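Need residues for this backbone.
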């Protein structure tokens, strides 16, 4: 679906952010984390204005391009004309996080089968894998209040999230906060793997071995070593090369 380019109407910094966010949507689709046209990934445009990019509601994630992303303010007013709407439920969740967390450059939310399954378990994320230790080091929970289109839910979601970077939305799905789009993608990759491994381990029916809690306390240093202190930026160039080989149209 062709959308007129907005490259000439935005700054170089915003154009790069648009390309990275469109790439993130394509990668989410590629890895099987999308839910038709539902769920969202938002990115804050640097600057004092608190402007954001979010998906055009109604497009599949593998259709999204840099130009089709919708630019909105904190009140969900479009700042560049777009033929596409923005999902109000999605914006309530994302605006709540961006409002409370100045470090939230990107917020990524999913409804995957494994993520929703773990979100419905009373004990939530269990320390069953190496992946889970990274999640448990910065994990919070928010109870389900129905489809999240009511602004009055925002203070409770903000309080539950606190300074955590991984959030289980009970009976709903997963959410991650990243300083950058690359950080958010790597966090969701780890979160989703954690949930898939947990469901897989539980389905075996045998007794499960839990990771020693002391290991979780030292996991931040382990992650820093694994990525050379770069976080998501360590893997992002390889992911972009993968997209370029498959379909570079996300850049348009």
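Answer:
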């Amino acid at each position: 679906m062709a959308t007129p380019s907005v490259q000439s109407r935005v700054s170089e910094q915003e154009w790069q952010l648009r390309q990275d966010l469109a790439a993130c949507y394509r990668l989410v689709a590629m890895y099987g984390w999308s839910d038709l046209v539902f769920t969202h990934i938002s990115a804050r445009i640097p600057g004092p204005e608190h402007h954001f990019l979010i998906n055009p509601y109604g497009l599949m994630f593998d259709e999204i391009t840099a130009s089709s992303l919708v630019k909105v303010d904190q009140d969900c007013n479009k700042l560049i004309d777009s033929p596409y709407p923005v999902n109000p439920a999605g914006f309530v969740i994302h605006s709540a996080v961006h409002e409370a967390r100045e470090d939230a450059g990107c917020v990524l939310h999913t409804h995957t089968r494994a993520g929703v399954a773990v979100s419905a378990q009373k004990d939530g994320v269990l320390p069953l894998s190496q992946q889970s230790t990274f999640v448990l080091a910065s994990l919070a929970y928010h109870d389900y209040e129905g489809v999240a289109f009511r602004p009055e839910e925002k203070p409770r979601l903000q309080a539950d999230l606190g300074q955590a970077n991984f959030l289980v939305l009970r009976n709903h799905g997963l959410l991650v906060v990243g300083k950058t789009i690359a950080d958010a993608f790597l966090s969701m990759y780890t979160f989703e793997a954690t949930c898939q491994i947990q469901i897989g381990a539980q389905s075996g029916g045998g007794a499960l071995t839990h990771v020693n809690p002391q290991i979780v306390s030292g996991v931040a240093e382990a992650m820093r070593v694994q990525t050379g202190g770069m976080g998501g930026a360590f893997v992002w160039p390889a992911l972009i090369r993968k997209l370029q080989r498959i379909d570079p149209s996300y850049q348009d």
